[in-house]
Amino acid sequence: MTEGSTFFTNAAVLDTAAGEITRGQRVLVRGNEIAAVGPDLETPGDARVLDLAGKTLMPGLIDCHAHVNAHTANLAGLADESPAYVALKAANEMREMLHRGFTTVRDPGGADFGLHEALAEGVIEGPRLYFGGKALSQTGGHGDGRPRGRAVREDHQCCPDLSTVCDGVDEVRRAAREQLRTGAHHVKIMLSGGVASPTDRIDSTQFSIEEIRAIVEEAEAANRYVAGHAYTARAINRGLAAGVRSIEHGNLLDESSVELFLEHDAFLVPTLVTYERMAVEGADYGLPAASREKNPIVLEAGLRALEIAHRAGVNICYGSDLLGGMRRHQLQEFAIRGAVIPAADVIRSATVTAARLLGESGRLGQIVPGALADLLVIDGDPLADLAALTDPDTHLKLIMQGGNVKADRLAAA
């Protein structure tokens, strides 16, 4: 249930689009929306007044690549687990995500309409969820978790695997339609090999051009879009040319890829923190040895790809892609990116640019009238030091989602 009115005074408001902070601002929240922003607003008589004493007020964070079901790094093993068990583990993790400051996440493989509805109805607490259902993979592709000796695969809707396997234009059309009929906000496809899959090479390309185009056609017919897992420039370029809207990871892109990103106004969602953490503690959380051997190939190239894309002006969104217990490092992507690109651009990737990918410009990622009241109070200036975002126990003083206060530590500040 949404609270009444909240009136923030003496706030340093972070304008994510401009990359600037304006001090001495007042912000009025009515219901679940931001009603007004300005220095001279009159205090409403019916509002709860919160004096921020100069602290930063910013939009809630958006993670565009988070697998809420992936409580283990052994993704193939998820297929054999109870969906009830996986859902309960996901509920716990989503609560943690919200309390790190992520008021919205996009799950590109695994989360379904059940988790979406549970969050929307307040059955469980967590970020607003944009889900893709099961990712589409070709046989032997990044979403096919079978070992080489197994022929049988279970693709039932209730199986908590993150992917489904389909081959040929007719099959991929049907698979895309199956995800879209559940209300999926996007369709995720595997355009290349990956780290956490047992039988494919990272430098492989996956799905034929005809198959990719068929999936894109189905998504566009439903007014949705396609997100594509891809590492190499060859795989990235095939996807972008066929109409894929967002490229997940993109660690091995090159200048030819950049041209296509710009031509199609597409989005790149790097996920650098997951490779760093898999290198350090992947084995502890179930990452198989074959996957650990592939990880260095993409780990070393990721920062260079981020720099190339940023320098060219590609739309870049925030992603973490962490698995199992490594998800506690979700905020460290800010620190990794901040080492090579300006803080304002890192923050845009987790707010205003992410909102545009989700089709929520003006509703998420900004403090403007008419936006949803997803707000964070930060003790510090994230533009001056991104550490203000990476240490929520110290700096995160209030979390508001849709006008509801989810955590309030202002009195202790």
From TrEMBL:
Q: Which InterPro entries match?
A: Amidohydro-rel, Metal-dep_hydrolase_composite, Metal_Hydrolase, Metallo-dep_Hydrolase, OTAase-like
Superkingdom, taxonomy of origin: Bacteria
Name of the protein in question:
Amidohydrolase family protein
State the organism of origin.
Glycomyces lechevalierae
Write one Gene Ontology MF term: hydrolase activity, acting on carbon-nitrogen (but not peptide) bonds
Looking at the record, the residues that make up the Amidohydrolase-related domain are: 56-402
